[in-house]
Amino acid sequence: MAWFNLFSGPTVEKLEQKGDALGTAGFWGEAKLEYERARRKLEAVTDQDRDSLGRLEGKIAGTKDELAREHHQNALQLAVSGDFKEALDLVELALELTGDASLKETLAQQHQTIEAARAGEHQPTLSDPEYDWDPDEENVGFQAPDEQFSALCGTLPDPVRRAYLGYGADFKTGYLALNNGDFETAARYLARALETQNAADSYIPLELATAYLHLNRPEQARQLLETLLDHHPDALPAYQILCEIYWEQGAFDRAEALLASIPGELAASLAVFVLEGETLFQAGRFDDAKIFYRDFIATYGWDESIARALARTHEALNEMDHARRMYQEIMGHCSGCHSRIDPLVKEKVADLSFAAGIHDTAILELYLSLAQELPQKAFAYYAKVSRIYQTLGNETEARRFLALADRMAPR
Known about the structure:
Low-confidence stretches: 1-8, 121-143
Distance between the termini: 40 Å
Oligomer: single chain
Helix content: over 70%
Mean pLDDT: 85
């Protein structure tokens, strides 16, 4: 317990790092909760760090968009299999989450298509945009608790989904509270549900442990998860949460032993490789982490989550040129396959280039693009645009963007 401060809990920086690690591993929901927890802690400080607050807001928005994209894909599969109600629930949940205008339009079209298919008019062709859509239509994004619970459960593996739907009212209340960030309520109702169910093979300990972790009760969370794994050795989220606990406590040998105990096929999954690399990173073994990530890419080929972890490791080693080139490579892969480039990756490329003295039009364009994608940080981007214009000898534009940055800066 010496590594935990039971009164103040983890720092904002630690929480943000946890969110980064979770996002790298593809645990977008958990990453969102960590970023929101960091934001609440930062907002409670009188002298707030506006740059950090803006960065967290951007990361929260990014995780929401990623969750919405997952729901979009899962809804597509559900609709193809004829499960229109659950597909619609997922689309509505995605609409609530995302702030991406183009994704909202895609989701609204998907909603119309599934509605039409459910009415028996035609089979769904979810990529076809030729449907009327009223952007002012009411209630498209509204979800009652039952619908939200059904939508959240719809994203789970079938055995887990069926179990969750059968756990009763206390579990539903606790699970919804957990996903809405109300951890005290979540812990109370989930503990009650666990006591009511009283089944050794229940999945409820996983959700209760998540609530306990957010309430800074790691020992209770650890005990629940270690017992859960006796009955569900394939429960990947349990390994992930236990690793977090061990990392926070500095018990890196326990994290390594836990990961070494993961059975067969699960041990070869990308998520477990990410946890193994993150354990090295959290232990401060940056050189080992770098070798681990490079070996993974050499053996298994390109993977963005591993590439991002490698770039972050280069930063930790103060190998900024290598980090910048890695982030540029990530951008190149996204452009090559015509997928969306994460604005946080763009920001890394821009900031590392700017710090290295690369003040050219390509970096200027990146900052202008970022100002559109992350408007809450536009003032900082415009200040750098002004500096770049000054370097390029365009004093008029330099003054214009500096004035714009000053007007937009928080007071």
